[in-house]
Amino acid sequence: MQITQAMEYAVHGLTFLASRPEGEVVLASEVAREVDVSPSYMSKVFQQLAKAGLLVSHRGAKGGFSLAADPKEITLLEVMEAVEGKLAISPCLFERATCPQEKTCPLKPVLKELQENMTSFLSQRTLAQLAAAKVSGRETKTRILATQRSKR
Fold first, then answer.
1. What is the span of the domain harbouring residue 9?
2. Per the structure, how many domains does the chain have?
3. CA-CA distance, 86 to 16, in Å (whole number)?
4. Is the pLDDT reported for residue 111 higher than 50?
């Protein structure tokens, strides 16, 4: 599994929305500016997230996007699967095709455990946690820059 650009932009965009006041409607172009991606690409990613039920798309003059649920309720696993589909370490864990090695494969139990650990890990991380970490990181960076300026 590899984190795609679409997944990365989805996470960054949703984290930005999670840091905004609850229910605030934000234009995709504003999110695109924040994430540093083209507005058309951000719109495409956000349409996928809206289709998956993670965002609400608002039409009209005051249109844009808002989170469909509390950021504490939206997991990183849900975001990733909304963009990429079911996450899989190996196709043999999900495909119904028979493998001649299936009964004796020494790797399958290891891959299955890895898959379960990854899924568990991602389902325990929420947008609220990511937004809090982003704010904390921003505050730390601001403190460091202020300290550097005061030493000059």
1. 5-151
2. 1
3. 24
4. yes
